Task: structure prediction
Amino acid sequence: MKLRLKYNNNIHQSVHAAFVRGEKPDIWLKEIDKWNAAPEELDCYLMPGSINSSEVSGLFIVFKKPEFAKQFQLLDIYTCVHDKIFIPANTMLLPQLSKEEIRDIFLYDVHVFHPVIGLVGFESKDKIDLAELLCFREEQLTDWGFAHPGIQPKPAFKQITVIPPEPEELINSIKNEIGQKALTDIPGEGAGDNVFDKITDFFKLIFLGSILGLMKLFNKVLPEGNKIKKDASGKKGLFQKLEEWISINLEELQRKRDDEIKRLLDLLDENTNEGLQYAIPLNSPYLNRGKQTSSSTLTRRPLQFNLGKLGGGTATEFWDIGNRYDELRTKYLKAAQKEIEQKDFKKAAYIYAHLLGDYSGAASVLKQGNMFREAAALYKDHLKNQVAAAECLEQGGLYLEAIELYKNLYRDEKVGDLYKSLQQQEKADYYYEKYISSKLAHNDYLDAARVMEEKMDNTDRASNTLLDGWENSYMHENCLKKYFDIQFRCNEKNLSHKIKEVFQKHTSQTKRVSLLNVLEYVNKKKKDERTASASLEIAYEIVSNETERKNAVVLHHLKKFLPEDRLISSDINRYTNALRNHTFQKKPEQVFYLDNTIKWIKAVWHRNQFLVLGVKDSCLQLARGN
Result:
């Protein structure tokens, strides 16, 4: 008889053994280690290279518990035929032999029919112990007290942050873009004053202003000061002439300053970029800090939006612009709008912040230009609006900076949202839990459940919380409606069962009428026969009990549960009218009983309420009612 193997890829037989190819034990042990199987669960045999060679070609492994083989990733798998011979799992043995024939033909304990090697037989004594493949060195007694600990591993990355440039660096190019020109180069009256004339006007303003101040002080101190102004003949005296001369010169200096302002207004119309370099700040709360002497010319200012210089307390020259204020402000606003239209948001922010003192407008412009960090700095440091600063950082994707501000504001839910966006779920859950605890402490079960469901994806916990809110919260109806909304999505098939469960286990006598309102909501939202039937059954029971307690108003709820019954309304009206006509029926007396486990000592009545004092377990007990 000649035995052969026939391949058939459609055969799916049970796996009883596996063949691990390789000549070295380390290959076999690495493969077995991947299986995470105990050595005592395996029978191992060394496979020869051929029936005529004693060189090892691999390790044949038999699983004592074949069901475990399903858990392993195996390459060459074998199945067992009649507990005697192992063949590849995708083959069949031809000719087919009975169990008795195999027992008579095959004499060894284990036979392996390999497609290339051939038929190999093993006795029980041929099994090898995997421990024999390991070589252990002799123990060496060595003092390790002098061993070097080695290089410490580098700490793992916890956070990587890109340091952005400062606002000054972002907009430092504005000055170079506009260029520098001297105001004296602009054509017009007064534009040709040389340096000497400007210095002369500067010292003249100081001198005349000082003299005029001393004269006014002298007139206040001396009662006869006015007489000094006139001589004996009644003509103008020396002091009066000096005062008039000083006033004339000061008016001349003021005229030059007015000319400067007019030239500035004209320059803003002709060349906005050039005019902004000489613009006068308006309405800034940080003006006039320190002391700086006025001059009759406008000085050049760097055209930069600089957060570091806002509120810095530097000395600023005071200009009495008089009725030019509104005109200047209009020019500045027009220039800012022009820069916004040209997408130059940094220059527009400069106009709002430095020239108009409108930090809110400057922050809005910076946000429009996607400069969220600079806008947040304005909100935080100058407008003292932490919330707007945090929202600005969040809008710009600066989550880590926004988180720090939200923490200071105790916005735990928002902090959790941002950590979740950063895929730091553990930190997100921590702040969600803080938010939930604060809401539950204030009996806001509805909002706490919202976070559990939407943010933490825990519908079971949210459902249980809403049931607690149904039993304990003042917003009990909304809590139960939200509970059933969750059941619509998660337990749609068992909705009728959930309705009955809520009625039987979670609804007290005082909340039964409220349950009718919720069931009306459920029926309207979920038009299902089983749901409607369960709701109607409960409605009948609640209405019946309430009617027995002379609360006939609940009868009108039945209209919602029986919309197709046209006679229900007239039946209810007839029944309620009949109840009103039975005036001879006395209302049942309302009786209540105090806790009989408490030793009650005394009861008093005060106005519309009573108080009862008692003792239980050495503790004072108080009962109060109206």
Notes: Residues 503 and 538 are 8 Å apart (CA to CA). DSSP finds 24 helices and twelve strands in the chain.
